[in-house]
Here is the input.
Amino acid sequence: MILHTTGVEYLGDYQLYLNFNNGEAGVVDLTQRIQSGVFTALRDPALFATAYQHPVAGTVAWQGGLDLAPEYLLELMQQQQRRAA
Here is the structure.
């Protein structure tokens, strides 16, 4: 099975609630990810809030063409859940 997101909800404070096609779901905090590289543009709260489910790529995307791999998002979400437990 090729992993992809099936739903994206912006929660505020650089956090998204994600659903994946493998049945997993949860909150991912992208605060650290947007501190370098091309993703620094997402520090703008208005731009970050444009997060949406890309209908073709099957992952989270933002206006301007930025997106993150679903595998990365799932791993980050799982790491954050383990730390919170």
Q: What stands out?
A: Residues 78 and 84 are 10 Å apart (CA to CA). Strands lie at 5-12, 15-20, 25-29, 52-53, 60-61.
